[in-house]
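Q:
Got a chain?
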Amino acid sequence: MFKDNLTSLMLIAVIKEKNFSNYELFHKLVSNFTHLDTFEYFIRTNFRPNLLFTNIQELPDSNYITFTIPQPQPFDYTICRTTFELKLEYDSHITLPQLLHCSTLFLYCNNIPRTLFNALQLNNNITFPYLKEITFAGYIGTSDIREICQFFSKLIHFSPNLHTIEININWNYMTEIVGQLKELVSMRYLKQIRHFRLGQYYSCNSFLHDLLKIFPNLITLRLPKSVSIFDENITTLINFVQISSMYFPQLIRLTFYGDLKSSNRRVFENNAKHLNERQQIEHPWHCTTGKESNNKYYYLSIWL
């Protein structure tokens, strides 16, 4: 069906068949595509590719990758699910090789594996190229904050493609965590964070100012429904939207969410209506409401 029409092909895969480590057999895959001009690939295999492959790299877990230049985006979990999610839970025994191929990390902050923590402290040359999202959750005490932030900061430093962070902890320590991260993490790495989600209520008076200190380049911001905003008049919410767009000039979407109560749906719909009616001429916005795809929350999104 495609052999006479296909002109470009990109293959990203994990392959466990030995034939695919043989250059000639591998390229027979595309020999029937008569009009193919470009063939790019990124292959992960447990067999060593033969020397006819131009680019071969051995991984820490004794597997191999071979690829064309420029290198296709490898193992993006949103595309082919070959990377995976890790959860550092109470009985976790996560190893460094596992973390090397993780795309999404769920970190319980009161259960950091000591061996993993020590490995990160001792190794300054490691990279987590596939890690794109970290959730930082759990209940912490004052004595835990420094060590937890040290571990968190190492992950940020070693993850060049990290773009999303969610924090879901007891909110009264949020300001201290912001201060620790600002001290421990170079702004060069903090600027790469483009999406931030907050899992618990936090005082709106200082929240945006605190967040600006560590993540100045946000394009999306997701917050829980704050009583102090939504129980007051619409002017309070408008002010919050205006301050958000002023603090984060690249911000595209500001989202509030709440559980599946009919009262939340009504509040969001009413506020969306008022916001759309009172949008600013110099900085127009548009609001949408609905139920999230996981069917857990209602949301109000302000598109800036």
